[in-house]
């Protein structure tokens, strides 16, 4: 009787990729930017995220021991994406098995390098490894789901004195394939890592993905953003947070404003900051924030009012290059963060399209 050969481990089948040095540009995967994959709070979350719109379905589950991976934990995936894209563009061989020192990862994502920071890094790796995702995104067959964890496994290396010497981790194929696809990766502002609020970080990724660098900017209805956030907060609290972000203007490279349609829909509008400058938090009364002076004359011009109605003669151009999803009118399924108030006002999430409607304000 022949003995069954032991199955070779995933680690043994992969070639080890060593992290590159230097000041790499931060890159993010568009799918991770556009959909609710992470908890927006540092509190221990175990309640799943359920999101379903048209043929896109996402379910994110956590284990009680570690809780769900947070948007701060996702910085490690941004580091991984940045490494893989840089290596690919340099003609180097890449791999899902990646090795780096804690110092390399922590300094790239703008963290400290103390023993406390290292412990937090390990906790983040545990959450990424234990959080599971099931999604239909990029699946060729309608309704077919791909299930994975953000990190398949990770191992800690130490020197002969027991000090941390390195970390090896394996990213899932779903993430790895997206990173190596040029159309699915965007460069982000390094100032993103300085954003301390979970809502701020989430909104920057949404704005960067959907708004890109188009001068015309983009718009989203508050309630649709609520669905895309996966937030556990009631809608009223979520809307308050959005308005506070507009007041503070913390997002690097973008101006935010609020617009109200004739029908009473509240929209978040965003566009690149004028002259490529950071947005000043000081807001003129009744106007949008303006960029700092010292560049072109257009930087000094009076900005457009921050509160407008929908009675416009022309719509903004469709943002098809970086976002088709927000131009698609589709039925919205209930998700875990939909409150009783949302259910009672379901007609607001399915408004009829009017000839003068604004792109990005979904039905």
Give the N-terminus to C-terminus distance in angstroms.
65 Å
What percentage of residues falls in helices of 4 or more residues? 25-40%
Helix count, DSSP H or I runs of 4 or more residues: 10
Shape: globular
Task: Give the percentage of residues in beta strands.
Answer: 15-25%
Count the beta strands.
13
Q: Radius of gyration, rounded?
A: 22 Å
What pattern of helices and strands is seen along the backbone? HEEHEEHEHHEEEEHEHEHHEEH
With strands numbered from the N-terminus, the spatial order across the biggest sheet is 1-5-9-8
Structural class: alpha+beta
Low-confidence spans: 278-324, 326-363
Please state the average pLDDT score.
78
Sketch the major β-sheet.
4 strands, mixed
Number of domains: 2
What does this molecule look like?
The chain is α+β, with helices and mostly antiparallel strands. It folds into two domains: 13-187, no CATH class; 197-349, no CATH class. The chain is built from ten helices and 13 strands. It has a four-stranded mixed β-sheet. The protein has a four-stranded antiparallel β-sheet with strand order 3-4-6-7. A three-stranded antiparallel β-sheet has the order 11-13-12. A hairpin with a 5-residue loop joins β12 and β13. The radius of gyration is 22 Å and the shape is globular.
């Amino acid at each position: 009787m022949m003995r069954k050969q032991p199955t070779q481990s995933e680690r043994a089948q992969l070639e080890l990729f060593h992290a590159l040095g230097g000041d790499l540009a931060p890159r993010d995967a568009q799918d991770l930017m556009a959909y609710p994959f992470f908890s927006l709070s540092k509190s221990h979350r175990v309640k799943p995220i359920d999101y379903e719109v048209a043929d896109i379905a996402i379910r994110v589950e956590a284990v009680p021991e570690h809780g769900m991976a947070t948007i701060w934990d996702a910085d490690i995936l941004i580091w991984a994406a940045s490494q893989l894209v840089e290596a690919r563009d340099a003609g180097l061989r890449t791999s899902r098995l990646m090795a780096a020192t804690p110092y390399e990862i922590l300094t790239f994502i703008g963290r400290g390098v103390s023993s406390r920071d290292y412990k937090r890094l390990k906790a983040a790796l545990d959450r990424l490894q234990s959080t599971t995702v099931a999604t239909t995104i990029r699946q060729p067959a309608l309704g077919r789901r791909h299930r994975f964890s953000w990190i398949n496994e990770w191992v800690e290396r130490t020197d002969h004195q027991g000090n941390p010497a390195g970390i090896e981790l394996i990213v899932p194929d779903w993430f790895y394939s997206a990173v190596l696809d040029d159309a699915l990766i965007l460069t982000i502002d390094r100032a993103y890592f300085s954003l301390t609020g979970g809502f701020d970080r989430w909104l920057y990724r949404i704005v960067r993905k959907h708004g890109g660098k188009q001068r015309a900017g983009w718009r989203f209805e508050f309630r649709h953003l609520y669905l895309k956030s996966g937030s556990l907060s009631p809608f009223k609290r979520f809307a308050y947070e959005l308005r506070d972000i507009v007041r503070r203007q913390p997002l690097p490279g973008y101006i935010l404003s609020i617009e109200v349609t004739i029908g009473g829909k509240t929209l978040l509008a965003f566009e690149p900051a004028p002259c490529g400058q950071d947005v000043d938090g000081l807001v003129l009364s009744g106007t949008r924030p303006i960029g700092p002076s010292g560049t072109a004359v257009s930087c000094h011009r009076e900005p457009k009012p921050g509160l407008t109605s929908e009675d416009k003669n022309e719509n903004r151009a469709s943002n098809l290059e970086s976002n088709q999803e927000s131009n698609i009118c589709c039925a919205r399924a209930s998700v875990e963060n939909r409150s009783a108030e949302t259910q009672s006002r379901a007609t607001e999430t399915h408004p009829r399209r009017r000839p003068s409607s604004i792109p990005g304000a979904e039905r």
